Every structure is written in structure tokens, then in C-alpha cells.
Amino acid sequence: MSLGIVIKSPEGIVLAAESRVTLTVNGQNGQPSHMVNFDNATKLFSFKAPHNHIGVVTYGQAAIGQRTAHSFVPEFESTLPDERLTVAEMAQRISDFYMEQWNAVMPQNYVGPNMTFIVAGFNEQEPYGRVFLIDLPQRVQPIEQQAAISDFGITWGGQREIVDRLIQGFDVRVIPIISQTLNLNPAQQQQLNNLLVRNLQLPIPLNVMALQDCINLAKLFIRTTIEAQELTIGVRGCGGPIEIAVIKRQEELKYIKHKSVTA
Amino acid sequence: MENVKIGKSNIPTLEENNSANYLVSSKMTDLTEINYYPEGLLEIDMLSNHFDYKELKEIAAPNTRS
Fold first, then answer.
1. A 221-250 residues inside an 8 A Cβ radius of B
2. Is the model's pLDDT at A69 over the cut of 80?
3. Which of A6, A20, A24, A111 is least surrounded, with the fewest CB atoms within 10 Å of its CB?
4. Burial of A248 (0-12, 13-18, 19+ CB in 10 A)
């Protein structure tokens, strides 16, 4: 479940996530009987200096065994060196650490969503940020998003149906439905997809957008998803407070919206 | 009206991958003109607040009217 978004823009990086974790409780016959939501999970996390130029958003599989990804952060931090790592090095360390936890308790024949991490931050002396995607256990090698240094973009995942529709202009299931109905071959499907994207995609000019605009954009996508789920039939996997952080060149990660414990 | 560079979405099916992305590539050389009105409609009165879909159809496809 969940929804996480990272935007790499010329003025910095925006990380955003909501706070719902959904647990499925099995009945006596092993079949799922209840879905229970908790709305205070932490899916956007940061690290102490000198690694506070990097942030992580996680979505998909919420827990390894009985523990959330965020609950492992203290143990992970204790493995970090005293000198600043590059974003790529940090992504690799996150992948290795969480894969080790995964292998220790998760079944070998696991079937389910990946535990995804978007690792984003700045390298020293570089003008723009770096973003890496890790999907455990399937894809342990971090894959850089917007890989050229002056590429910009949005990476999102989890329950992404609403955001897909907003950005792409149509549901991702449109192409398979039309293709099946009209018996289109792969080349025709690609042609149809290109045509629809070219005409329907939301034109987002990230290159000219200020960091505040990118914050607003991330908030729009998550808030819209939460509100759409509240009004429709389906799995309400997104909810709770929206957390947002930004990382600017030569500055540490800063929370723009951050929940705190209260009574 | 400015010519600006917009991105391209890459959205796999949920079975393929639970992540998607929108990329504004530095390699893209073609600029996209952001134009919220169909071609040929720029001469219409932009200040009018009575512009509706019926008018749009009539202006955009004058040759298809019976």
C-alpha cells in the first residue's frame, strides 16, 4: 500500500509520503479476515550528520517480519562510517542492510509486493541531486532515476492509480483493455500508448518550477489520493499525516511537514 | 506564451513494477509549446468568461457542421 513521491527539480529535491500502514489479519483458516489501518507510520526518514544530505521514502511491503523499515533506522545508522557517503553508496548500503534483514526472517517463497526505497540526496560538489530506486527482494541493485545529472523528474509508487491518472491522463489499464478488445499487436499498442501520452499527459514543466511549486505538486498528488480513496470503494491504503521534506544543495534535509508525538 | 520543456511519463502496469516516473530529460531538444487552446483558437477573446464546450466545438470544427 502507501504512496511515496520524490521530485528532483533544479532547486532541490522534494520527498513526500503519507503515514498509513495496513495490516492484514488472518482468520483461523489462514484466509485474510480483517484489514487494520494505523495512521502514524513513518515512511520518510532521514539520518544524522554527516549523512543528513540524504533522505529516504519507502512504500510497498511495510514490514520485514514484525518490524517496519523505519524501525531499523537506528541499527542501520550504527553501521554508517563517520565520513559523508555519496548518494549511490548510501543507496547500496540501504539495499544491503535491508536485504540482510529480509533474508533473516522472510520466507524464501515470499509472494507479495516489494519493499521499495527511493533514496535521494546531494553529492558534494554536484549542482543537482541524485535519486535511486531499490525494490527488495526483486531488484537489489539501486537504479538511478533521472540518471543524467541535469535530468529532472518525478518518481512515485505504491498505490499509484490516482497519480498515474493525473500525470499520464489515463489509467494504466486502458492500453491492455483496448488492446484486448481490438486485438492490437505490440507495435499498435505502443503506438496507441504514445498517442495517448502525447495528447493527454499533464504537462509539468519541472525545469522552470520553484521548489515551493514542487512541494505543492507532491502534496497535491498525495492529498488527492487520500481523499479519492476516502470517497470510493477500494483499499484505503493511504492516509494519516502527509510528511514532506526538502534537500537543497549544500544544505541538510529539512522537514516542511513533520508529525510529532502528542497527547 | 513560452516554449518550455516538459517531460514524458513512463508508467508500467502494476504487475510489472509498483514504481513509475516522469522524466524531463536534459537530452530532449524539442520544446513543447504550452497552449491550452486548440490550434487556430488564439484569435478568440481570451477575456471572455462565456467560452464553453459548445463554442469550442463550433470553432474547432466549422466544416463538420451539418
1. none
2. yes
3. A111
4. middle
